[in-house]
Amino acid sequence: MLAAFLDDIRDGDLIAPRRMAARLRLPMTQLSRLAHVNRNTMAAKPESPAVQARLGEIARIITRAATLAGDEGKAIIWFKHQPIPGFGKTAEELVEEGHADLVLADLERMAEGIYS
Questions:
Q1: How many CA atoms lie within 13 A of 24 on its CB side?
Q2: CA angle 50, 58, 24 (to 5 degrees)
Q3: 3 state DSSP class of 115
Q4: How many Cβ atoms are within 10 Å of 73's Cβ, its own excluded?
Q5: Integer Cα distance of 40 and 108 in angstroms
Q6: Does the pLDDT at position 6 exceed 90?
Q7: What backbone torsions phi and psi does residue 74 show, to the nearest 5 degrees?
Q8: Between the CA atoms of 25, 10, 53 and 72, what dihedral angle is there, to the nearest 10 degrees?
Q9: Residue 75: which of 94, 85, 60 has the closest Cα?
């Protein structure tokens, strides 16, 4: 399940922006906003450390949510549509605002049985 998600978004050792956008059903412009990387940079230099670090944060959120939800599809729906209690925003909105760390911390609390 999770291996399939990671396999689908990777091109060798790199996260492929277009593949990730397709799996998340997002246009590249939206993925570039989420990742805080210029869309031209993302397309022309997907191997850059900045692109890979930002896409890696999103991939970690999806894989962690999928582990908790038991399903990658549910994790993607949660990421895009379910407001996180205590924040009043979706994980996607928080990531776009630069708060991927808060989303990951909340997922870790949920894994420990503590809910917002």
A1: 28
A2: 120
A3: coil
A4: 11
A5: 33
A6: no
A7: -65, -40
A8: 50
A9: 60
Q: Kindly state the tokens that stand for 80.
A: 């895009």
pLDDT per residue as tens digits for the range 14-48: 999 999 999 999 999 999 999 999 999 999 999 99
Q: For residue 59, give the nearest of 15, 106, 113 by alpha carbon.
A: 15
Report residue 71 as tokens.
Answer: 């399903």
DSSP state of 2: H
* Cα(34)–Cα(26) distance, integer angstroms: 10
Q: What is the average pLDDT across 76-99?
A: 95
Contact 114, 56 (CB under 8 A): no
**Tokens, residue 20:** 């990730």
Contact 55, 17 (CB under 8 A): yes
pTM of the full structure: 0.90
> Which residues make beta-bridge pairs with 10?
15
